[in-house]
Design a protein that fits this description.
mainly alpha, 48% helix
C-alpha cells in the first residue's frame, strides 16, 4: 500500500510477534535481553535475559504459559497475543496503530459513549482507523460526498 497506511504484518510465530512488539513498544531503541528481563521483573514477572534472546533468535517456539505471561507484562499487552493462533493479535495490532496515529497527531482525541472498562471494541477501533485513512486520502469529503450529492 503506497498511501501510507500501515499493513498488518504477518504475525504467526512467537519470534515474529516478539520482534513486532519490540519495534512498536520501543521504537528506534535497541532493547537488550537484560533490559527487557529487568522490565518484566519490575512489573512482577520473571524472564531470564538469555531466554528472551533465544525467543528473538527463533530458538524458542513453544514456551510455557508463564513465559507468555512474562512477555505480556514486559510489553504491556494481553499475554494471549503470544499464543499460537491468537485471537488477540488483531486487537493488539489495531491498538498499536491507533496509538501511533495518536503520537503523530493524526488523532487528537476520541470520545465514546457507553464504552466499558475494556475500551473500544476491536472492530470499532479498526473502523475508526479506516475512517481516518479514508479522510486522509481525501475519500471522505463530508456530507456532500453522499450518493446523489445530497447531505447524508
Amino acid at each position: 500500500m503506497d498511501n501510507g497506511e500501515e499493513r498488518t504484518p504477518e504475525l504467526t510465530t512467537l519470534q515474529q510477534k516478539v520482534e513486532y512488539m519490540v519495534e512498536k513498544t520501543f521504537p528506534g531503541e535497541k532493547i537488550s535481553g537484560r533490559v527487557f528481563a529487568d522490565l518484566v521483573k519490575e512489573r512482577g514477572g520473571s524472564l531470564s535475559h538469555s531466554y528472551f534472546s533465544n525467543i528473538l533468535a527463533g530458538k524458542v517456539t513453544n514456551p510455557s504459559e508463564e513465559i507468555l505471561k512474562a512477555l505480556g507484562l514486559g510489553f504491556g499487552v494481553d499475554w494471549r497475543f503470544f499464543k499460537d493462533e491468537s485471537e488477540v493479535v488483531d486487537d493488539v495490532v489495531a491498538g498499536l496503530q491507533f496509538l501511533a496515529k495518536r503520537r503523530t497527531g493524526e488523532i487528537s482525541g476520541l470520545a465514546g459513549r457507553g464504552i466499558d472498562d475494556d475500551g473500544l471494541d476491536p472492530e470499532l477501533l479498526q473502523f475508526v482507523l479506516s475512517l481516518l485513512e479514508d479522510n486522509k486520502d481525501g475519500r471522505d469529503n463530508g456530507p456532500e460526498a453522499a450518493p446523489g450529492g445530497q447531505p447524508g
